[in-house]
Amino acid sequence: MKASENKATLSFSNGGQNVELPIYKGTLGPDVIDIRKLYAQTGMFTYDPGFMSTASCESAITYIDGDKGELLYRGYPIEQLATNCDFLETCHLLLYGELPDQGKKTSFTKLVTNHTMVNEQMQFFLRGFRRDAHPMAIMTGLVGALSAFYHDSTDINNPKHREIAAIRLIAKMPTLVAMAYKYTVGQPYMYPKNDLSYAGNFLHMMFATPCEEYKVSPVLERALDRIFILHADHEQNASTSTVRLCGSSGTNPFAAIAAGVACLWGPAHGGANEAALNMLYDIQKAGGVDKIGEFIKQVKDKNSNVKLMGFGHRVYKNYDPRAKLMQETCKEVLGELGLENDPLFKLAMALEKIALEDEYFVSRKLYPNVDFYSGIVQRAIGIPVPLFTAVFALARTVGWIAQLNEMIGDPDYKIGRPRQLFEGSVKRDVKPIAQR
Ligand code: ACO
Question: Most Cβ neighbours (<10 Å): which of 23, 28, 266, 386?
Answer without folding.
Answer: 386
